[in-house]
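Hi L.,

You mentioned the student needs an example of a multi-chain input paired with its predicted structure. This one should do, with 199 residues in total across all chains.
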Amino acid sequence: MNLNSPLFDKIRSKPAAEEVRPDNEPRCQHMGCARKGEFKAPKGRDHEGQFFRFCLDHVREYNSTYNYFAGMSDAALQSYQKDALTGHRPTWNVGVNGSVPPDSKLDAASLLRARLERLRRAREASATAASRRTVGKAALKALESLGLDETADKDTIRARFKELAKRLHPDLNEGDRSREDKLRAIIDAYNYLKSVGLA
Ligand SMILES: [Zn+2]
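Structure written out for the whole complex:
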């Protein structure tokens, strides 16, 4: 994943001014938090060597959010970015250029939190779209005839096919025709799944 994408610039833009008390002791930069800023968190690209100051709770929150972003797939991020460009969610007014309204009360942590929620939705949408793309209707029907769904992997499909083929084999069923028809359907389904690379 490209950590130097414009998305991350946006996330990292507008760092809150580091608040320093007269005693020269930095405070947590999370909005509304008055605790000591005992922990440093890197501000990121274009701010190398610069840090936010957070209390323990807020540095954890900040870091966990970063870890979450690091785990995102490129597809999910792209999906998110597309989502951001259409700008439709009334609760969030950050424009294409990532500008925050001047009177915004959003600080770095709440900015990340809001984006986190939207990324989560984007990732879900992206995963759903991916499964629809890879498993067409015919494949889904074939999987269903094996008693499986679109989440089944090759091993699962093969194992299920073997199990059903064995169970339905005429030698074991004293020539029961209905079972033969069922066996034929299972074989057709399995061959179809193999032909499209799913089995
Ligand atoms: Zn704090």
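You could point out the following to them. The longest strand covers residues 39-42. The chain has two domains: 6-133, 137-195.

Best wishes,
N.
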